[in-house]
Write the structure tokens for this entry.
Amino acid sequence: MKIRCIIVDDERNNQQTLELLLEDIPEIELVGKAGDAATARKLVASLQPDLIFLDINMPGEDGFQFLASLPERNFEVIFVSAYNDYGIKALKVSAADYLLKPVSFDELEEAVAKVSRLLSDKDSRNSVQHRGIIDNLLENDLLSGQSKRIAVPHVGGITFIPLEDISYLQADSNYTILHRVNLQKLVVSRTLKEFEDILEDKGFMRVHKSNIVNLRYVKEYSTIEGGIARMQDGGEVAISRRMQDEFLKRMSSYSVGFKK
């Protein structure tokens, strides 16, 4: 199946560079290019693309404003930007991927493959039933008592993460950032409270309104600045005053010879 796409970027050389890269991806059919949001809207209406490669910083309307202006969206989006500051915002508008300029061909090819999977599964992905399956995986993969992984839904699918790979979790509005022991981060469109309910009896503890820690990976506890847990991966997590006694009590289960 051909993926009909358009490029939206106000810089012509960026359009041309991306077009050259796309010529080597057989699934792609480039059907249009636009240098501003107004032209892009006309192309969307007339061409009905499957995919838009969308720049963020453009004169007039930026990429996010362009998306918000559309009455409906029946296409996937891959953001192509020179800035890495918009990752969480891109997730919130359900972008399929986020590529940094200059675009790597390997990353571009991988992003297109992701879109291809999304399009082939579009009907089920948008159905209430499929949404329910993802939600249940998040809740039940651990609650069964048999799994040592957590199913984390994200844009484009589900990642199954072993519990021992998670160092701590950090709230970001209605999103949660999972800090993994390999220093990678994963932004998930779920609240910290949802993770607290799932992980509370799995060796994790909510120690602050914004933080959940994996007690196995607490390297040091410091009373400086009210209370800090230093993690084995180098992260520092604030512990609220009201949770400090419970934190120390819980840590006694993970420390030989520890007495509160």
Observations:
- The chain is about 35% helix and 30% strand.
- The CA atoms of residues 80 and 182 lie 26 Å apart.
